[in-house]
Amino acid sequence: MNLHEQLGALEVGVDQLIQAVVAPQAQNIPETPNEADAQQAPAEHAVSEAEAETVAAEAAVGDATAQPPATPPLPTLEINRPAQNEITMTIGGQTVALRAEQIGQLIEELSNARASMTPEPPPGIPPGWRFVSTKNPVMAVQKQSNGDRLLVMRHTGHGWVPFTFSPDMVIQLYMLLTKG
To answer: What pLDDT is stored for residue 176 in this prediction?
Structure first.
């Protein structure tokens, strides 16, 4: 699956999450009476043209001074770990339990999406950054037709993580790893 297909799959997943949150909220919004209903209501008395203009003017002033309706708060994301092999994500009151395979898929989709976003991650390791390192990871290397090397390493949390190195970078990496 190429990057565009993966981004498309991620967008579909995000759209589904949004629909899961927004649709139930839309069902809970009370309907306002429409003008047809108002016109069907019986008139209690006839209103003179002058009175109608006064009422219209007062309504216009009231509309101008009225506060815009407050926007509802955005749904929040809550992440919990009820068991070692499960994570739950709650958005706007809708909870989804994810197993290891689904978490791996989510990490991959988020990683692919994040790679195309700005700003990029910081160039240096941020202070206080928490991480899990994998000692002696499983690796695979492929030589590319342009001389670059593709190095794929298996991280216990992130899964398979690919890196492409130019020949100059391979030398720099070797020197960095063998520096005493």
So the answer is: 95
Residues 152 and 140 sit within 8 Å (Cβ to Cβ): yes
What's the pLDDT score for residue 136?
97
Contact residues for 160 (Cβ-Cβ < 8 A; gap 6+): 152, 153, 154
State which residues of the chain have pLDDT below 50: 1-3, 6-7, 10, 25-26, 29-46
Would you state the pLDDT for residue 55? 55
Pairing between strand 86-91 and 149-155? unpaired
| DSSP state string for 10-45 | HHHHHHHHHHHHHHHHHHTSPPPP-HHHHHHSPPSS
d(CA 138, CA 160): 9
Q: Which of 73, 77, 74 is nearest to 89 (CA)?
A: 77
Domain ranges of the chain: 1-20+75-116, 136-180
Edge-to-edge strand ranges of the sheet holding 149-155: 139-143, 149-155, 159-165
Looking only at the bridges linking them, the beta strands covering 159-165 and 149-155 are: antiparallel
Helices of type H across 43-135 = 49-65, 100-115
Residue 91 and residue 25 in contact, taking contact as beta carbons nearer than 8 Å: no
